[in-house]
């Protein structure tokens, strides 16, 4: 499965698996952006993200963790 920036829930699940020891509430957007781009299944252009997308991913990750 190929992930794009709009797959916020799937990205959040993948990040939770890849960074299980991290509290998503305190992740900086610069780190979040890098981690998303480093996901094995991620195939979107890095410059297509924005603060709104990163915030949606972070919120989905926080909810997934709860």
Low-pLDDT stretches are none
Beta-strand content bin:
under 5%
Specify the CATH architecture: Orthogonal Bundle
CATH superfamily: IscX-like
What's the short story on this structure?
By secondary structure, the chain is an all-alpha fold.
Question: Any key phrases for this structure?
Answer:
66 residues; mainly alpha; Arc Repressor Mutant, subunit A; 55% helix; 0% strand
Tell me about this structure.
The chain contains 3 helices and no strands. It is mainly α. It has one domain: Arc Repressor Mutant, subunit A, CATH 1.10.10. Helix 1 crosses helix 3 (51-65). The radius of gyration is 10 Å and the shape is globular. The mean pLDDT is 97.
Which SSEs are present, and which pair or pack?
Elements: H1 8-18, H2 29-38, H3 51-65
């Amino acid at each position: 499965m190929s992930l794009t920036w709009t797959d916020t829930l799937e990205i959040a699940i993948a990040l939770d698996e890849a960074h299980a020891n991290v509290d998503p509430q305190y992740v900086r957007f610069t780190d979040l952006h890098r981690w998303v781009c480093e996901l094995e299944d991620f195939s979107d252009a890095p410059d297509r993200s924005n603060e709104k997308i990163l915030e949606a991913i972070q919120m989905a990750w926080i909810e997934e963790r709860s």
